[in-house]
């Protein structure tokens, strides 16, 4: 293989990667270090990154300070999973339609999906509240699942559409010759081949749904037992002080499922995001 880069170019590339990773990982490292310190030394001056009195005590006491912490983590996982499953019901047929059919306004509709993604959920929070109130689902899981589903569908359609466009049409035509209907062909031919793309959409939808729960839960829910992790963490904020060590520990434990999921399935994410980048 021909060496494309000179030695100094390799140094520049790896230095850039190291700088980027340092910027991304620094908050997590600091949160972990804070979780190991005694509470009275979190804001000590002079600042000490490492000290001799560090321990994992916060990871045990955080369950006592907020007894429902396990329930908040479960709620976050349940809401994100429900959003993922519901969004796939709409994403799969829509992505197939955009990949296989040509109709008036298809590019306009796809462009509108991108425009929707640019709109923050905070801008639509009042109309969404009125809709949830009219539907009578305030203070329920549905009040957080339905808006979350609406916000992940556009991106999912774009991702899965690009993957389905790579599937040869000849496979469908062969199934039609054998008498298969389009729905049967989608179920038995397209979906098995598109499964890597569906996995990518599922992962990205889950991560997005897991990350966007705070605003919807804060606005549409008043029941403590239905709180997801982001709003449940507010219980570490006392009237006179904040239990920073336990707050950092609970935050890290709460995002652990998403990190593990991403690490296990990251190759599918990369494959899905680069689908269609190379013309075959």
Overview of the molecule:
The chain has 280 residues and is mostly helical. The protein has two domains: 1-55, no CATH class; 65-273, MetI-like (MetI-like fold), CATH 1.10.3720.10. The chain is built from twelve helices and no strands. The protein has helices at 7-36, 58-65, 69-100, 106-118, 125-135, 142-164, 169-177, 182-193, 195-211, 213-220, 229-232, 244-273. Helix 7 packs across helix 8. The chain is globular. It starts with 6 loop residues before the first helix and ends in a 7-residue tail after the last helix.
Report the mean per-residue pLDDT as an integer.
Answer: 84
**Beta-strand content estimate:** under 5%
**C-alpha Rg, in Å?**
23 Å
> How many β-strands, per DSSP?
0
Distance between the terminal alpha carbons, to the nearest Å? 23 Å
Can you give me a brief rundown of this structure?
With 280 residues, the protein is mostly helical.
Secondary structure elements and their pairing?
Layout: H1 7-36, H2 58-65, H3 69-100, H4 106-118, H5 125-135, H6 142-164, H7 169-177, H8 182-193, H9 195-211, H10 213-220, H11 229-232, H12 244-273
Helix pairs in contact: 1-12, 2-12, 3-6, 3-9, 4-6, 6-9, 6-10, 7-8, 9-12
Defining key terms:
mainly alpha, 280 residues, MetI-like fold
